[in-house]
Structure formats: C-alpha cells, structure tokens
Amino acid sequence: MTKTLLVYLAHVLLVLAMMRALRRWPAVMGPPVVRTTLLGLFFSADLIFLLWVDGLGELPDWHGLAHLAYFAYVLFIWKVSGPLAAWKPLSGRPVARLALPLLLVLAGGFALLWIDDLPHAAARVGPAMALALSFVPRTVVGPLDEWLASSKSAVYFGSVATILSMVCLHLPITTFLTSPGEIGIHLDNLLALSLDQTVLVVYVAAAIYGIAWTRHARAILACVAFVSLLVALAYSFVHPFGYPLMNGLVFEQIPIASAQLVLRAAADVATVAACLAGGLVLLRRAGSRRVLWGLGVVNVSLIIASAWTASRDAGGGAGGESARAAPSGPLLRYSQDQRNVLVLFLDRFMGGFVEGILEREPGLRRELSGFTWYPNTVAAGRNSAAGVHPLLGGYDYTPREMNKRGLPLRDVAAESYAILPRNFTAKGYHATLLNPRGLGFTMRGDCSALAVPEAGCVHIPASVARRKAEADGMPLKQLSDANYADLLYLLGLMRAAPYSLKEILARRGPWRPFMDMSAGTTFQQWAELGALRDLSTAGVDRPQLNVVFNMLPHEPYYLGADCRPKQTRLEPGEEEMRQTGFSNSCELQHFNGARCTLLLTADYFRWMKQAGVYDNTKIVIVSDHGIADLPVEDRSSRARLGGTTGSLYVNSRSVLLVKETNAGGDIRTSDEFLPNAEVPRIACQEIGGCTNPYLGGKPIQALGRDDPFLVDFVPWQFTQQRPTEFKIEREFSLRNRNAYDARNWREESP
Length: 750
What we know:
The chain is an alpha/beta fold.
C-alpha cells in the first residue's frame, strides 16, 4: 500500500504543478468553458497514466472511466448547486444549501470506493474532488468562507492530523492492543509505523489542498475534513463496531446478513448527514477559533486515554470474548491408568514429505515408536475451509455432503468439531480442544460455537510465546509482527470508518499477506508446539481426549536448518540449493518445516514416555490438506512412480500417522487407503465406535464413501462461501483407492 500511495503522491504533485502553471496563464484560465475542457483533458490523461502505472498498459477500463465520471459528477453537483440555492425551501438557509451538495459529493465518493480497490480509489477521489471544487459557485460557498475566515488551513490540517493520530495511534492502543503484555510488545513498532504512515498521508493531504487553489474550494475541503473527523469520532466511540473478533491480523471470516448490511447503510446515511449538518452548525455558531480549541481538546483526550491504556496493560484472555475461561493449571491432561486419545492436527503438513524426513532423520523411526505411516491418504480439499471438517467429523462433513444439508454452513461446520468431544464425554472421558482453528467458521477458533458444555476449549496464552521469546533472545518486534503491528493503522481505519467502508475493508483489505510468511508467526507456532510438554500433566483419574491444533507446517519460512526460528528466511545460495535436491527455496522451507514439526512432536512424545502416558495413549498425527498455490512438488518415490508430483495432487496430499495403544517397534508403513476423513472412526475405536447425534445417531464409519473420493476446491475465506453451502469452484474424483496413481484422478463438473 505504501508504494501505491507514493505513486499517487507523485501524480498529485504533478497535478499541482499543472494547476499552478494554468493559474499563471490568464488567457487560458479566464473563460470557464476552456478551463473546464483543459482540466477534463488533463485529468483524463492523468488517469491513463495511473492505469499504466498499475500495470494495465491500455486505455482506461471501467474503473478508470468511473473516476473520470466522478470528476464530472462532482462538477455537475456544484454547477447545479447555484440554481438550487435559489430554490425557495433552501433560500435563507445556508446550512441546508451547503449540506445537500456536500452529501451528494460524499455519496459519490463512497460509491467509487465500492467499485474499485481501496488504495487506488481513495488516492483518486481527493484530487478529483479538489479539481472540481474550483468551480463551486460563490453564492453557495460564500457563507462557509465567512465562517472559517482565515482559519481554513488550520481547520483542514488540524482535522486531518486528528484523524491520523486517532487511526494510526490512539485507536490501535485503546481498542486492539488488548491482550496481556501486548503493549510492551507492540508500542515501539506502532510508533515507528504510525510516523511513516502519518507523514505520507500528510503530504498527500497537503498536495490535495494545494490543488484547490481558490479560497472557496479550500473552505469546502476544510469543512469536509472537519465533518470526516466528526464521523470518525461517532463510529469510533458511539456506534458499535459491528465486526467479529480478530484472528491475529485478520478479522474473522463471519458473513454478515444482507438485511444487516442494508440497516448499516441506512445508519451510515443518517450518521453522515447528522455529522454534516452538525458540523456546519458548529462552524456557523461557534466560529472557527472555537472549533480549533475543540480539536485541541479532542487530541488531549485521546492522548490521556492512550496513556491510561498503555499504563494499565490489561485486556482480554487468550481466546477473546467468545473463548471459555481457561482452566487454571495445565491445559492438556493424561491418565496413567486409563486409555487416552491424542489427535495432533498439523495445518498444511504435506504427507509426501514423510519419506524424505525419515531418510534425513533416521532417529525418528525409533522416536515415533509404535506409529504406522499411511502415505496413501488424501484430504477433501486443498485448504482448511474444505479439509478440516471431514478430518474431525468424518465423511458426512466433506463439502459436497455438507451442501446437501441445506442448513447454515457455520452451524454444520461447528457440528464436526463437536463429534469427538460429544461421543467421548458420553463415555466418561474428559475432552479438550486446544487452539481449535476454524471452529465457528473463524480462523482463530470461536469456542462459544462448540455445543459440548462439558468439554474444554482453550487457546494457548500469548504469554507462552513471549516467555519463549525472552528466553531465546527473539526480538519482541518480530513477535509483534505475528499479531497486529504491521496492520494497526488499517485496524484503526476499520474502527473509525462508516459501516460501508468497513465492509469494503473487510472484503478487499490486504489481510492475506499479513497472515502468512512472518517471522513472528513462525516463532509463535514453534514456541506453542515446543511448549506442549510444559502445558501438560499426567496422573489424572479420568481418561482423556486431547485435540491439539498447530500450524507450524503452514508457516515454516523463518525456521533454520537447526529447527530454530530465525529473523531471516531460510534461503540458501544457488549451489547450496542444488545440494539440497529441491528446486526452490519455498519447497525447501516447507520440507524443513515439516521435518522440524515431526522433531518437535517427537520431543513431546519423549515427555509422554517419561510421564508414563505414551503406551496407553492412541495418537493420531494428521493434517487437513497439502500445499496449494505454491511451487512445491512431492519428490517421494510413490509420487514419482505414479506421476503425481505436481501441485494438482500435492494440494490435497495430507499426512496421516497412527499409533495404537500399547503399540511398539520402529515406525511402519502401510499402503492402505485411508483419507483423513477416517480419523474420527480411528479415534472412536477406543470407545467402541461413535455416532453422529446431528444425523439421528448415524454411526461414524466409512460405508464405502472413499471410492470415489471427492476433492473439492473452495475459496479459503469463510465469507466467500454461500450461506448454506460451499462455493465449489472445481471438483476432482479419486478412484481405485490409490492417490499416487495419476490415472485414478478425474476432474468432475462441480
């Protein structure tokens, strides 16, 4: 986004230079028709330049034409505002004469933001409005010019500065940094980030102000900035936020009903209209000097509130408002006398890596004693949205089967998380879900969606990763990058913006890049997996079911070859890369991440052996999918023999290792076909089988539904699904129960 703003800053300065040149050419600037024509041509040429910079390399598409149309729209509004001012209902009412055209101009700007991506649209709306403001009739703006007098610049820049400080600094501190210890982690990074963003936006705002060369145009810009501040204050501190909890850097993907969106749009219209009318009344009755004093009071109040929050350093628990209270003491429990079940869910662990890992780490064959590796497995999709539910609930929760239910997708998805806890607690077990990613159709996991009151559902506290960071000398700035620091100014904008803009940001904001590939995320997942032994205890009376979620294989980029987090990515030189046998660093990073994940789990198993709970615990290691949309191949012997090394097969190639109770000996390999949808059946064997209470007590078993086995490609975002069904974009069938033979794969019509 910074690069985009720099490009538009350059183009705004170019426009400013052009306007200054035209202003000194009286013969051209005199006739309004000529001036309008020249400015329109110049603005059109500028749009073509911007589109070329964007990489389109062609004449304006409908996005560019929309911006040109907005310039014409604003020009038209102000042209008709003169005759409109003479209309009897508006005669003698300067506030109404100003409010109506301003409201229409702002409404057009909102529409433009809806049809284009946010950074581009926001950077183009300002110059377009500033250019068009030069043609505002003095009969309409004259009163506003008098109210502001010589304080136009002060009101404009004071309002802009207050909005920026609120969005970039105060709101992130008082609203989003709410976990214990988080202020200490983020504050330095937040200040540096805020300074960078603030300076850039101030330059853009100054350039836009310079484009509006008449005092009437600047009066309107000052008014718009002041009203925008009132709107931001209303949405920051009066209106409810209206969006769910955050998962690190992204708001949870929970869809908002259409009726609710309509109500929010109506609230936007009412709020903006009220703030516009109120702002004009304030400027008229209080005067610009008192308005400036008011801006000072607002800034002092924000500073006090931020300082108070930073000094308190208090906030919500690990799971947020919707999480259940974390139990005191260890999060994972095991019985030494009765049987336990542990399901270790490792996000994006590609199963084909296991062969190479065992070759490079032969000691793992002994460390994973009693395990059987099932390489001939497959997931129901290429991402967590499609793959996690059958892993937890069985074949009844593949995307195609869930679509048949015709029920709200979020509710059906939550059922899959409840299958194992409900059945095991009914047989006297205590059940715990730790870090249940995806629960409630949320990335972090909404524990309130687990309809099993007697089961535990908790998240690992942030303090675990922080203590590990301090002990290992990991810079806290890197840890902060795993949470909010890089997007705090965007989060502040989400809080201060009207609901319509919030929806644009939620749908098209740059959340995805900040979810992935950060050193802090790698460290956090590594620390949490390595801390399992410290979060566990043995010796409880009841048998235990523990389902643990971890995504270290999903975020392996900053793991070193020694399996310790680094501050730089694992990217060996060209010669060293050739020696590794991998074609690119991404493939090496994911293999290394999978290797380190197995080594960390083996360390946890050593603790289980020492605690006397390894032999009497059935353990399932499983992933929800393989690796999609990345240059990663499966170089295992089975994949090469069957011609399934490519991405089409790798993206659904999950991992599956199972250790039965009291099993021993080095790790074994079985070529039995076991999709990860078999995991519930495998786990339930310990209690004599499970049933699905949501389907009339239907037994959890295969029933032959693994041939053909359907793999569905759906969007990774929960919000991109339909209310009662997954949006299946592509579908593949696997026949003959051999995932490694390319001849068994066929694309179906979704």
